[in-house]
Amino acid sequence: MKNNEGFKPFIPADQNPNELNATSIIMGAILAIVFGAANAYLGLRVGLTISASIPAAVISMGVIRFILKRNSVLENNMAQTIGSAGESLAAGAIFTLPALFIWFNEWDMGTPSILSIFIISIIGGVLGILFMIPLRNALIVQEHGVLPYPEGTACAEVLLAGESGGAKASTVFKGLGIAAVYKFIADGLKLFPSEVHYEISNNTMRGTGVGMDVLPALLGVGYITGPRISSYMFTGGILGWFVLMPLIAFFGGDAVLFPGTDPISSMDSWGIWGSYIRYIGAGAVAAGGIISLIKSLPMIFSSFRDAIKAYGSGAGSANTLRTEKDLPLPFVGIGIVAMVILIWLIPQVPVSLLSAALIVLFGFFFATVSSRMVGLIGSSNNPVSGMAIATLLFSTILLKWSGQVGREGMMAAIGIGSIICIIAAIAGDTSQDLKTGYIVGATPYRQQIGELIGVFASAIVIGFVLWLLNESWGYGSPELPAPQAILMKLVVEGVMNGNLPWLLVLAGVAIAVLAEILRIPVLPFAVGLYLPFHLSSGIMVGGLVRLYVDKKKHKSEEEKTEATTTGILFTSGLIAGEGLIGILLAIFAIIPFANGTIADVINLQTGAGINLGNLGGLIFFALLTAYLVFVVNKKYEKRP
After folding, report:
1. Domain extents for the chain?
2. Which value, to the nearest 10 degrees, does the dihedral of the CA atoms of residues 460, 463, 465, 467 take?
3. Beta 208-213 vs 195-200: how paired, if at all?
4. Which tens digit of pLDDT belongs to each residue from 418-455?
5. What is the pLDDT of residues 199-213, one digit of tens each?
6. What does DSSP assign to residue 197?
7. What DSSP assignment string belongs to 204-261?
8. How far apart are CA 488 and CA 358, in angstroms?
9. What's the gap between Cα 522 and its chain centre?
10. Which residues contact 223 (CB under 8 A, 6 or more apart)?
């Protein structure tokens, strides 16, 4: 069914304003690198990533229109298209690739090659874009009015509301600056701890603790995801830290239970969490991803069938208008064949040519599914983790059956999973960007070139970012829990070696099934169970601020939307600011200076003995939260 009759884009097809030029490319590449690095840090820190389309659109609008005095909505759209591609590639990469760093460390093999990470990222990113090109007419044009593409439509609205773009851009930059200063004071100068923790030592609740990570990114994540998702994560944390951990301490006593190596009575809350709760949470997250995938199967198959059917009925029409021109199909076909050959040739994915072709075919299926599903339910609800888990299980079993076991087999499984994961993430982002372009009147083939530029820009730096973060803190550490990557690592090891504490993992699976029966969204609940309670509690604070904004009485729906959007832009800046300073502090942690590193020199706690303690951390976080409330209220009151 076609629903695009009568639709007119904002910029008519017979006009050809500035779009893909040096300004938009440079601006977009910078945004791709910045948001890619920030999203990588955020995802490895808290297990969640954000869509950068709207913040990128606002920043590009502020720079291009109000600083450079260039008035082209298509130029702004191109910059955000390139920028959001970098963020999506990072989101796909962090799900799997950090597992390689953990294994290389365990095997005393140094670190994975940055070139290898670049190649894997390029393969996944390019394929995700190429697969979406022949589907654009089917999903974006013919299904206009049927598939809403929430983020793409919202981004178009932001671009078209250019009159307020300067104020919106300043809101993002304000959040970025405040978070940068806050993060530097907390984790650079170490004036106060960024993680507040109180161990509970009385006999009634022995084996647990309470605390909060008092960081801007968590406040931002909680506000953006909203009170429902935040509360589900918080509930999972309560189950792990205030139900399961005290029970383990109570019944465990002086026993030494696998996989722990010390008597339970000698463990503090972090010891119990690391030895037992993490595996229960991993089982819950894995089951949640699979449940999400299973529930999506009807939509997956219908999406794949409808997309292919629509493409077959509409792809042959002549594309004469500027707004209908895609990259030529021969270019797409040559690109896909080149990626198949590259997968076959690179040692990181040791498969035959036929297997490489099957990987690409499997990737096309998930790209089609991802592109249509984000059109219906949005990028935030796209079950990429479920697709990745299913891919890893399937590929690991096949590799084991074919005799590719041990280290080579495990690395091959992660390589395959990484490509598929990046394909799904990029395909979803590309479809959202093309939806934005369709509304504002962009040129499709130029947007597709922009997506490729964004992928290359982010792929160049993502390997360095992953290496830097690993060198500074290490994956699986309290600073970088890397929940998805560790989960993927556990899945591969469990299939290959059979050395997982399956009782704990299956207990987590049972908890996930129970949550599904009770109609609790499994994935956010399971992530809350898997991650330390301190992350969930910090995110919950942001969720409560969003609840306050949602429940507050406004004079009109427009004013409510204005207040909500202002908070989203400000908290997007908080997330980006913390991510960028996190990368800077990681650099400081490995650069030698004097008798230590730059990080040691600026550390006030060890250098001058200055530290405000847990109370200081809570006060600073309370002030930041109060300022967020002030920002949304101030914007609301300013409206006439």
Report:
1. 22-162+303-481
2. -150
3. antiparallel
4. 999 899 899 988 998 999 999 899 999 999 999 999 99
5. 998 777 888 999 999
6. E
7. GGTTEEEEEE--HHHHHHHHHHHHHHHHHHHHHHHHIIIIIHHHHHHHHTT---TT--
8. 21
9. 18
10. 542, 543, 545, 546, 567, 568, 571, 628
